[in-house]
């Protein structure tokens, strides 16, 4: 040990039964609950959520908390429930192929306040280090015909980039699948043949491009230039009918609009050019500095004005979380509660990102709007500002 001093670790207490467990034990010897991973240094993107996994955790494990999926969610702020309790569970995370299971049916027919989302929602959120709104992945209805599932221990989400690169760190027991070690080694390999062989597919691209992602705004900005609309100055009479036909096709296929974050899938990106039609935005300071934000808003039919129009034509204040207490937010909060009451709304930067990914407008509620505490803080700042000006 080269003379190094090893400090003894203190025992931990089981969160389920409260029993004191020795530091060397990875799970409680009474209820078999695993030792929670320390959340320090990890974004708590699932804070406040109670998750229940349906068809994801193998039954061969001693306890559901031993699975990598459980520990990933728990380390990032979620509370995972062993028993499906509709009075506590916020989100039901299911395995693809379990869309007709009893728990999913119960949520879709009776307890509609519990969204049912596939495991890809969890892994995509972890990959982006932010909670993607469940409505983007939510199952809308029970399929008429059972969808195909996967047999064997290796599920499709075990090939997700975040799972491949982090499963070894989170899993308490052995990883599923006989080729798990091969897959894990291939994830960090520079040889594309190793990666293709481990995944069982021919990707035909270098590994860096496979795992590389971009922000939804950047992807939407690129998509806005891929099929620019023709103007009256660019076409003659023979092309006008083609333009009208194309516009009708674009309008009818607007529901297929969406943004893929992997660079290898960027060619599939498509924006809905009427998504923000009729909306007039005022941007916070950090968003004004990003040219792509204005470009995307205008490409989707919206308009961007300066803060001078806050009292007149602005309909939405789009802000970044780091700008939530700036002067613009103070003035906008006052205007929204007095002169522009009911006419001026607030939306976070992530609201625009999720709308672009879905291709549809998402209601400005819950995590997309300022909290009641923030509004109270902004009101106090405005009163203080008025008192200073009066003096």
From TrEMBL:
Residues 228-252 are annotated as: Disordered. It comes from the Eukaryota. Residues 41-139, 271-369 form the BRCT domain. Residues 241-251 have a biased composition (Basic and acidic residues). SUPFAM superfamilies: BRCT domain. SMART domains: BRCT. InterPro entries: BRCT_dom (IPR001357), BRCT_dom_sf (IPR036420). This is BRCT domain-containing protein. It comes from Bodo saltans (Flagellated protozoan).
